[in-house]
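Record format v2
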Amino acid sequence: MQAQGKCPDCNGIGANPLIMHEFAYIDRYDCPGCNGSGLFSDWAKVNGRHS
Ligand SMILES: [Zn+2]
């Protein structure tokens, strides 16, 4: 994923679908790995590595 510049946690989407179990609708949340940017550079910062 690094070569493509995309966050490996969300594949560069920046958010993932989340099913709210009690309300039966689909919500989205910002990817915790890249803070929703979808960028590998942000993911590397959040995860404390730059390699
Ligand atoms: Zn991400």
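The first strand starts at residue 15 and ends at 20.
Residues 1-51 form one domain.
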